[in-house]
Design a protein that fits this description.
Elements: E1 4-9, H1 15-28, E2 33-38, H2 51-56, E3 60-62, H3 79-86, E4 90-95, H4 98-102, H5 109-115, E5 118-124, H6 134-148, E6 154-157, H7 167-171, H8 174-184, E7 188-194, E8 206-209
Length: 216
């Protein structure tokens, strides 16, 4: 397990849900965990929406100064520098969608690469526009890597159709995620599924998660 875990993907890939659940997983294993919301692109789905639950689990939350308000300026948290320097936490980073969001990562890239103890996950949802095929997803990956300056190390299959997702919905994308793995030369870290799904896909390395609740 690496100390720093970064989650990136196309808009609507579900990376925030995965990042939050991954933080809960590490905390449940007794590890000191911090999660940082660096998504300067999408003001709607935020790690901050789970802030109370995260803090109740002993997880340190670092967010954008105006996240959750009607002001959404791309000001990045200065606390991140201290967290990367101290090395006393396992750090989860939720990065904004596509290359625009990955630019925010560039500020911290030198420190992350120097330490070298990281995983950079690409979250793929093959039911979303512009990532419906392995080739399209590979193009998005290349754009994110160029913008953020950190190469991906693994891929995650989060293909779903929201509340109507069934086990066969997920199973149908196995060939595509395996093709993306072959094209990119990267391993499949896991396939994520909603805990409320009826039944389970017949797939290896399932990561069951509770979906983040959006307050209104």
């Amino acid at each position: 397990m690496k100390r720093i875990s970064l989650f990136c993907g196309h808009y609507g890939s579900g990376k925030t849900n995965i990042a939050v659940n991954y933080a809960f997983k590490l905390a449940a294993e007794g590890l000191p965990v911090a999660i940082a919301d660096l998504d300067i692109v999408n003001p709607y789905f935020r790690t901050k929406d789970s802030e109370k639950e995260l803090e109740a689990a002993g997880i340190k939350y670092i967010g954008l100064p105006f996240a959750g308000s009607n002001v959404d300026l791309p000001a990045l948290p200065a606390e991140m520098y201290g967290l990367l320097e101290r090395k006393d936490y396992y750090v989860i980073m939720d990065i904004g969608g596509d290359d625009r969001g990955a630019y925010a990562l560039g500020r911290y890239t030198p420190m992350i690469l120097e330490e070298g103890d990281y995983e950079m996950f690409f979250v793929a949802n093959f039911y979303r526009p512009l990532t419906r095929t392995a080739e399209e997803a590979l193009g998005v990956m290349a754009e994110i890597e160029a913008a953020g300056g950190i190469p991906f190390t693994a891929i995650i299959n989060n293909s779903n159709l929201g509340p109507i997702t069934k086990p066969e919905t997920v199973e149908a994308t196995r060939a595509e995620i395996e093709k993306l793995s072959a094209l990119s030369g990267l391993p499949i870290a896991f396939t994520s599924i909603d805990a409320s799904m009826e039944g389970r896909p017949n797939l290896p390395d399932l990561f069951t998660m509770e979906l983040q609740k959006k307050p209104f």
